[in-house]
Amino acid sequence: MTTVESASAICSMPTRAHAAAQYIRMSTDQQQFSPDAQKQAISEYAKVHGIEVVRTYEDAGLSGLTLRERPALVRLLIDVRNPDRDFDTVLVLDISRWGRFQDSDEAAYHEHECRRAGVRVVYCSEPFENDGTPFASVYKSIKRAMAGEYSRELSGKVFLGHCRLVRLGFWQGASPGYGLRRQLVDANGTVKGPLAPFEHKAIQTDRVVLVPGPANEVALIRKIFDWYVNDKISTTRIADRLNVMGLYNPYDRPWSKPTIRAILMGEKYIGNNLYNRHSVRLHTPQVRNPPTEWVRSVAAFGEIVDPAIFEAAQFRLTRYSRGVVKEEIQAELEHLFRRSGHLTMRTMARQLHVHGKSEYRKHFGSMAGTYRSVGFTPTYNYDYIDTRRQASAIFHEFVANLSSTLMREGHQLSLEHGETLMLVNDELKIKLNARLCAHEGAQEQTWGLRWPDTYDIDLMVLVLFTRMPVRISGFYVLPLGTVPAGKMTTICAQNIPALSSFYFANLEVLAHLAQRSALEISGGRRPTARE
């Protein structure tokens, strides 16, 4: 009596003479290799040769290219190694049912593993005896190669068929995406109705086209293009905006930069049918094909995005991907300046395909340098930006040098709050505060500071900067209580005398303040740095 094995079946019956397992791999019910046809042919072979089929391993998957989707064959290969198995022969209809492996040696290896475990593999409908003779080996090698070649040829024919249908304007495979829906038409182009997600056509001659989806989805697709092209909003900010609005992407998940980018690059939104951008053939890893291999049918469907808007989006995406060169930006700036007579960040953001101030700073050093490159003098003085940038660079170098000095002298150090809060020896908290001089020249020099009230510190080091040139002119080392917390304090001519004892030309004093002293207070306890 035959038993059907699942992938988790366990052999336990003792081996009997002429007992066999049959391996069935389904092709399609319309072909001679349907499961029922295979079982009938194997049954007739077993009856003639006095073999009893005691176990069946059946794979329902259509592909014979790999083991990955064939759990029954995997189970069979495991069971043949079991000394308590109840069969000593494996019956297979023919070599192609064993597998259409693209490497013919893989099929030979699996058969060899069975033979090594004492189990014969018999191909019932092949015109030779699988007896290990040279003829049998050569014949099997040829048939294995032919089995693999059949899959390659079939794959090529299917691909060419898909390409032909794409060029005729019919949708192949994949989900249509947000804002679009699949519609079924017959061989004459007559509309038969929409196809729901995961629904397949029932008649082979029917075809699928794309049509606009719900009005709210179409409106959102157009809005995404408008935000990106006209408002110059980045893909990340668009995704954030949609998530804040409580909207979800086509997969019912939050929007992300890649999803927005995929929509902006989707030619289907201007009616183009695009195919073969990526391919996975014969169960090999997915590859990205060059544009020369893409199959495109222009205006195959109705557009839901204006082609001019779409082209503008592609231009911006391309520039963002490859980076914008300085000469391109400068040419666009000069054109905009000649046309309008002035430049502002708002007009530049709307008219130019440049991603923010960082792109200008990368090529021209600053916004002031950007304006100067085309001969424009803004009414607002942007020199302060360059000054602050220079002061910031000097300050970070100063913090690095100070940290190195303290650590060389054996102090433990950690930096917080953007390297402006220094904790020395886990005891002394020092706030580093860089301040540019507010006025210079004929007017008196002033500096502003604010003692933090959101966290505790022991000392504030006020780093004084001059503007022309930008350099450090000195330091105030202010202990707790010197200035009120949470309020702005201005250091000027009136209060400089009162604070003069806290002024230093360098920070050697800081190293002394960080030193530990061995003191004792009542009870023999050593005090902390704050005590």
UniProtKB/TrEMBL annotation:
Gene Ontology terms, MF aspect: DNA binding; DNA strand exchange activity
Pfam families in the record: Recombinase (PF07508), Resolvase (PF00239)
Sequence ranges assigned to domain Resolvase/invertase-type recombinase catalytic in this UniProt record: 19-169
The organism's place on the tree of life at top rank: Bacteria
Signal peptide per UniProt: none
InterPro entries: DNA_bind_recomb_sf, DNA_bind_recombinase_dom, Resolv_N, Resolvase-like_N_sf, SSR_resolvase
Residues annotated as domain Recombinase: 197-323
PANTHER family hit by this protein: DNA RECOMBINASE-RELATED (PTHR30461:SF23), DNA-INVERTASE FROM LAMBDOID PROPHAGE (PTHR30461)
Protein name: Recombinase family protein
Organism: Paraburkholderia aromaticivorans
